[in-house]
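Note to self: keep these together.
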Amino acid sequence: MKYVNTSRTAIATVSAGLVSAALGMPLAALAQANPCAAGTPASSAANPCAAKNPCAAKASQRPAGYKPYQGARAELVAAGEKLFSDTRLSTNQLSCASCHTGYAAYNESFAQPYPHKVEMASGMYGMKQIHLDEMVQLCIVTPMAGKALDWKSKDLAALVAYMEEEQKGFKAHLAKTPSAAKNPCAVKNPCAAKNPCAAKR
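Structure:
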């Protein structure tokens, strides 16, 4: 599998705000933290932070007749764990782990069974609900500004398998610290420094 390594600074500016919203943070909360978010006064056609990727929704939706790759569960989870930290999936030096290490930047809705509504997918692309494999693709294409994985690939199946385990861990984490996901300010956003468009304090 080939990854795109070229850095695209203009695209990278959208990363932080979208990653924070990727798995369900309410758009209102996101807007307060990110003046570049779509729908805020600061967003406009001239603002590269507000630009939407017209290909993201299509690339993130399951194709007709889709049948995911099947393999040994343990092998897929192990491979997915490596991909979770692999910046080669992006074009802006981000990986899934850049924002989600230690269950950071997940909203409480991540604990819900998929498919379910996710604010980023709904608000930006009109997707009323989304499957976990579609969410993985959307995160790669939008916050990480990468290329969607082949739907039949082992890599996609591996990331989905690992995210299923991540979701189990998040549920346990949420049970111990229920206030963490409800308060978007409780955990510092590790991606904020990567976003020059983030609100200055």
